[in-house]
Amino acid sequence: MRVVENGLILCGIILMVHNTLQSIRFFSLQKDIIIDCSGKQKALLYGSYAGSILLCAIYIVTMFTGETNIWEGMVLFLTALIFTLLLLWIFTSVNNVKGRTREISEALIGVIEAGDTNLDGHSIHVMELTMLIYDYLPAAYQDQIKAENLRYAALLLDLGKLGIPGRILNKPGKLEKEEWDLMRRHPEIGVKVLKSIKSFDAISDWILYHHERVDGGGYYHLKGAEIPLAARIIAVADTYSAIVMVRSYKPSRSYDDALAALKIAAGTQLDRELVDIFAEIPREKIEKCTKQVQVKMEAFMHEDFRDEEVY
Predict the structure, then answer these.
(1) How far is residue 173's CA from residue 204's CA, in Å, rounded to a whole number?
(2) What are the CA-CA distances from residue 14 to residues 27, 70, 108, 142 (Å)?
(3) Active-site residue among 161, 192, 263, 296?
(4) Rounded to an integer, what distance in angstroms lies between the CA atom of residue 176 and that of residue 173?
(5) Fewer CB under 10 Å: which end of the chain, C or N?
(6) pTM of the model
(7) CATH of domain 115-300
């Protein structure tokens, strides 16, 4: 019977080691602006790590030195199994929360942009393109950026345009200097809007500097590597989206025209390496992003009451 007892305890040890490693991996990958492990959450997280390690130690000591019977072995194994199921539930719940948060954020931005023909899904399009670029980045670049943080920075890049008068946003002709000076403030306004959400501090610079140029001619005159990598990625996606989308002051342009424009802007406005990476992405994947955004925006605009009076 001793063999059976040790076998059960050994299975418990394997489960607890697996649980500990999975917990460390999961929460290190999930730590972002949505799942912000700090304060009590951080203490609870480290406490669970310590508890897992302590249980492993107890199981090992019990297996080699303890006098256990079959029932005690079963209890130890079932404890590890229950702990495993509990962790699985936590992991699933965290992913579900993040998924719902993402859906709500996209819906809110989509509804806001559905009321402006010059935006009309632009931020969602930029987000989709940005994440597509991220997938093609070298591993060294991906390691520098949390994917979920990048997703929200791209989605919220033009949030500050809520503070810009519609007469400026929708003006068909060239903006006057005063109007342009106000338009240039939209990244700053967006950062101020998000300032109350402490965890979003991690992406504030990415939003603030997404209109910088690598030659230093942008809004804040940062140049080259002074511009955060994430902001440079978003700038490529933002520029492509702006070219292919219809605006009140211009028609849409084709994929080929947009790609040619990006290559011309490489090294002056845009990061040349990132433009090269974008150019390597299969055309069908890029155009699929555009179609996906169109489908989403059609859903947001299915019921449009903007021209109806509400009593």
Answers:
(1) 31
(2) 20, 18, 45, 31
(3) 161
(4) 9
(5) C
(6) 0.78
(7) 1.10.3210.10
**What pLDDT, on a 0 to 100 scale, did the predictor assign at position 310?**
43
pLDDT at 258 > cutoff 70: yes
Higher pLDDT, 208 or 62: 208
- DSSP state string for 216-283: S-SSS---GGGS-HHHHHHHHHHHHHHHHS-BTTB----HHHHHHHHHHHBTTTB-HHHHHHHHHS-H
With vertex at residue 155, the alpha carbon angle to CA 262 and CA 284, rounded to the nearest 5 degrees, is: 50
CB atoms within 10 A of CB 188: 15
pLDDT of residue 34: 56
Strand partners, 270: 266
What are the structural domain ranges in the chain?
A: 2-95, 115-300
Could you confirm whether 285 is annotated as catalytic?
no
- β-bridge partners, 247: 250
Is residue 205 within 8 Å of 149, Cβ to Cβ?
no
Exposure class string for 213-245: b at 16+ Cβ within 10 A, else e: bbeeebbeebeeeebbbbbbbbbbbbbbbbbbb
